[in-house]
Design goal:
- This protein is of the alpha+beta class.
- The protein has four domains: 100 residues, no CATH class; 90 residues, Beta Barrel (Elongation Factor Tu (Ef-tu), domain 3), CATH 2.40.30; 67 residues, OB fold (Dihydrolipoamide Acetyltransferase, E2P); 76 residues, Helix Hairpins (Orthogonal Bundle).
- 27% of the residues lie in helices and 40% in strands.
- It has five helices and 20 strands.
- Strands 2-11-14-13-12-15 form a six-stranded antiparallel beta barrel. A four-stranded antiparallel beta sheet has the order 3-10-8-5, with no helix packed on it.
- Strand 18 and strand 19 form a beta hairpin.
- Helix 2 packs antiparallel against helix 3.
């Protein structure tokens, strides 16, 4: 029993001494400084805004009717290609034709009465001028004539209205285009008493589409007319469509406390892949610059550990006060030339959040420090011939040790 306790205590002592020696040797290993540098290079930078929108035709017209009646004939259907002035449908004209005939007869009678009263008034006027009739007779003739004239003029106007309504019973296409929807069937009654019912919806040209996108209020400030846009639709997940911003609408829409603005994007559709109503996932490039001198944004966050650098043989030249208030278009970077480190002020342009455009005070040969790393050589522990009593033993090894003891 005492022998086992002695073995365990000895093993623990050896482990403690080994660990202590490891850390003692490691603490004495010399650390070194490594500076990671980069150089300005030509590249592209861009920023973008994402949003969703709906595909729509640029020109879409709802065709209705101004008169009530029964649809007697339909000449087009969904997806029909139509020309301006082409007949789309006709309403039953029986009632409207009867109204026109009635008005024509009334007008004819009124015209006869008007012409008779006109001649009668002219005779009365001639006699009155010669003082052959009284003023009362003259005024009566004049009143009757003017009343007949008014009645005649009104019936002329009524007849024009009836003829117009009769013409409205024939529905024509106002534009060249494609019928997107048909809201009526043959034999259906349409009532235009209070509002104009929509019979057809016609898109002018499906090769020229647009996207009505909803852009969040936080992003709308950077969106402007003419910016490049790319977008995808679920119907063609492998295709990327392109366009440009044609309008930024000022009217705001609030939905569930989220404020958005409508942005109109021109979307050419020569292959007719884009269909009205598709949902588009758009990317608006609010800033794009190609082949400009860029530098990683990490260089602006680097702050040198001056004491550590000096201990490792580096010379520090501070040319610009770190606390100096710089304009928005200027930043401080640190440059390495051999064992000398110096700060310099550079002029910057736009940034995409990862890289920044450098516009002045830097050349392609300048080595700009990204970060400082500390490296060292660890001392490996010597191999030990002692075995820990806590390690698993090979079968039979315990028995052999006991026999030796």
């Amino acid at each position: 029993m005492k022998k086992k306790q002695i073995i365990i205590v000895s093993a623990i002592s050896i482990i403690v001494l080994a660990i202590g020696g490891y850390f003692l040797l490691k603490g004495t290993s010399k650390a070194s400084i490594q500076l990671v540098t980069t150089k300005v290079s030509a590249g592209n930078i861009s920023t973008s805004v994402t949003a969703t929108g709906t595909i729509e035709p640029i020109s879409e017209i709802a065709v209705g009717t101004q008169v009530s009646g029964i649809i007697s004939k339909l000449y087009v259907d969904y997806n029909s290609v139509v020309k301006k002035g082409q007949i789309l449908a006709e309403l039953d004209k029986t009632s409207l034709q009867s109204d026109m005939t009635s008005k024509e007869l009334e007008l004819k009678s009124s015209k006869t009465e008007y012409e008779y009263q006109k001649k009668n008034f002219e005779r009365a006027k001639g006699l009155h001028d010669k003082s052959l009739i009284s003023d009362t007779d003259y005024e009566t003739a004049k009143y009757t004539y003017e009343k007949a004239e008014s009645s005649y003029r009104k019936l002329v106007s009524d007849l024009v209205k009836v003829k117009t309504n009769l013409n409205y019973a024939t529905i024509y296409s106002p534009i060249d285009g494609v019928v997107l929807s048909r809201a009526v069937e043959q034999g259906q009654t349409v009532a235009a008493s209070f509002s104009t019912p929509t019979l057809f919806t016609i898109a002018n040209d499906l090769t020229k589409m647009r996207v009505i996108a909803k852009v969040d209020e936080a992003d709308i400030g950077s969106v402007k007319q003419g910016q490049r846009v790319t977008f995808t639709v679920d119907a063609y997940p492998n295709d990327v469509f392109s366009g440009d911003v044609t309008q930024v609408r000022l009217e705001a829409t609030t939905t569930s406390n989220v404020v958005t603005y409508q942005v109109v994007v021109n979307a050419p559709n020569p292959q007719l892949k884009l269909k009205p109503g598709l949902t588009a996932n758009i990317t608006i490039f609010t800033m794009e610059k190609t082949n400009v001198q860029t530098l990683s944004n990490k260089v602006f966050n680097f702050k040198p550990d001056i004491e550590t650098l000096k201990k490792n043989g580096f010379t520090i030249n501070e040319n610009v006060a770190i606390t100096k208030d710089l304009p928005e278009n200027e930043k401080i970077v640190w440059q390495q030339v051999g064992k000398t480190i110096s700060d310099k002020c550079v002029t910057i342009g736009d940034t995409d959040g990862i890289n920044t455009e450098i516009t002045a005070n830097m050349t392609n040969a300048d080595s700009i420090i990204l970060e400082m790393k500390t490296t060292g050589t660890d001392v490996a522990l010597p191999a030990s011939t002692e075995k820990s009593p806590f390690m698993p033993q090979r079968p039979g090894s315990t028995k052999k040790s006991a026999e030796k003891n």
